[in-house]
Design a protein that fits this description.
Layout (H helix, E strand, L loop, with lengths): L3 H14 L22 E6 L4 E6 L1 H6 L16 H17 L2 E10 L4 E13 L2 E12 L11 E12 L11 H4 L12
Antiparallel strand pairs: 1-2, 1-5, 3-4, 3-6, 4-5
Length: 188
């Protein structure tokens, strides 16, 4: 990871998680990630959509207003990108793993900047697929941040981060061996 906020949040989440698939939402202590709070967000997963439960002030400034109750998918204007991002968040919740994305942002005046986003699953009252913890921070803070809202986001990279101590899905001993298939027949 490239930014202090995404690295700090992932390390904190991983330490809280321990040997579980994900920590409980109630275990998150804002003071423990105070240096990343400006960039931190929590999403609520309802049957209809993912929406912001809370978002840091720098994130709100980046998009030109309060994000609480706003649809997470609405940040992406391109429908193909929106679908890709939502699939990634679904994979994070399904696999109990994190994901990190490299993003290129474009402001309403055409200025650009590189950002990094991490998303991590949370449990809420024992339920999985309930909440997502994340951080979105600039690789280098652009001078227009807060004065010129983001209008376009492009995905540059995306990868799953497997937490320490948890096996990767499908990576058991049988899955690592090459499959050998015997085809019946003979020499003609």
């Amino acid at each position: 990871m490239k930014t202090q906020s995404t690295t700090l949040l992932f390390q904190y989440w991983d330490s809280l998680r321990g040997s579980r698939s994900a920590p409980e939402r109630g275990e998150i202590e804002p003071g423990a990630v105070r240096h990343a709070l400006l960039d931190t967000f929590i999403l609520e997963n309802t049957r209809e959509e993912l929406s912001f439960r809370l978002a840091g002030t720098r994130m709100c400034a980046l998009f030109g207003g309060e994000l609480k109750d706003r649809s997470f998918a609405s940040l992406w204007t391109d429908s193909a990108t929106r679908i890709e991002v939502l699939r990634m968040v679904d994979a994070v919740m399904d696999e109990a793993a994190g994901a990190v994305m490299g993003l290129a942002f474009e402001s309403s005046r055409g200025a650009t900047a590189d950002f990094e986003m991490v998303v991590l699953p949370l449990r809420h009252h024992g339920k999985t697929h309930a909440r997502v913890l994340g951080a979105l921070s600039p690789v280098t803070a652009p001078p227009w941040l807060g004065s010129d809202p983001v209008t376009r986001i492009e995905i540059r990279s995306m990868r799953i981060i497997w937490p320490s101590g948890l096996p990767r899905a499908g990576a058991g001993p049988d899955e690592r061996r090459a499959r050998f298939t015997v085809v019946t027949g003979g020499r003609a």
